[in-house]
Amino acid sequence: MAFPSDNTITLANTVACTAAEGPGKRYAIWVQGCPLDCPGCCNQEMLPFVGGNEIRVSELVDWISRSQKDNGIKGITLLGGEPFSQMPSLVSLLPKVQSMDLSVMIFSGYTLAELHQLDGPTVEVLSHTDILVDGRYHADQPDTTRRWIGSRNQRIHFLSDRYAESDAYWDEPDTLELRWNDGELSVNGFPAKRLFPLWARPARPITPTPDEELDK
Ligand code: SF4
What is the pLDDT of residue 108? Predict the structure, then answer.
């Protein structure tokens, strides 16, 4: 597998400010490429390791910084695609983000044990991660209780003391966000649990369309 250089990251999409992808207002980043191919994955277009938008990490940091000033975001969330398929990029990105007093949440299809078996700087990436949600998405095990979590096998790891299971965030209902950008409707977030089984629950946000920054 070819990784982008440590000064670039390949994105599928971003949302500059969302309240539907983790605790508080956050900058959401969907990376391009995932090797896991879970049956029922709702982000099929983000699975190939071709395509996406390869940008410099410094440019992404600028976007995040702008959103912190404009929107008061409290952190970033990485989804995909598989964020740990771009570990060198995360090693560049995450310390910069944390130095801005922003938190880091990552959704990975790998379990924590599998991450430690990967060839790459797993320990360094995890040392800059506040919340890790791990494990494949199993469409036949929809999680109908935990906020932001796709299937019951997936686990939430609080890797710093910045967040805890007792935080009120986790008791609030899931939300979906709809945006109308230049004539295109985009959707991100998670449907309310009570909509099950009307809506097949994705492990990742529902096929977002390019954020305005990717159109530049
Ligand atoms: S659900 Fe997540 S881990 Fe599974 S194939 Fe899709 S992007 Fe990859």
Answer: 98
